[in-house]
TetR family transcriptional regulator
Amino acid sequence: MSVEPGSVRPGGRTARVRAAVLDAAGDALAEHGFAQLDLADIARRADVGKTTVYRRWGTVTNLVADLLLDMAEQSVSRADTGTLLGDLTANAHLVQRTLTDPRQGPLFKAIIAAAISDPRTAQALRHFYETRINEWAPCVTLAIERGEVPEDTDPHEVIRAVSAPLYYRLLVTGEDLDEAAADRAAQAAATAARAGTYHRSHS
């Protein structure tokens, strides 16, 4: 069975090489954006042989896809505060800190911009967010079990509703993306969930 470049999870020295290359790719994305990415430059930054990078990933798109896979797997686990609002607030603060980080913020902007025109990057980005939403969805499932929200609440829709206004500020309005904005996003999602807004579609 053939395997796409960058899709095998290695161990030992290969793992260290992968980590160094992905870190260098993230730095380059944050500094210059997707359009300026160059495998040779990334190899130089990572102090890795150019042939190794070309053989393992083949293209910039494959490398960015692997970077997103690694980011999804390394992300912080969900909170369990005992209340829906507490959990959603923790999620909102995590998103806010990530998007305002001097490296992570520009990195996400570059990847989102690339995903608009590159199908492989778009697919990898969707996988990244699906992974994160699946990680946090049990917060809503637990809230259903506690009776905080209606039984037919869609956990995934609630989690999406938390981060959506934060990304809107990052990508569209440029307004301050502070903890107060995160708190409002969490409060709005929790209030809407309790009101039954995010019921499952039965179509």
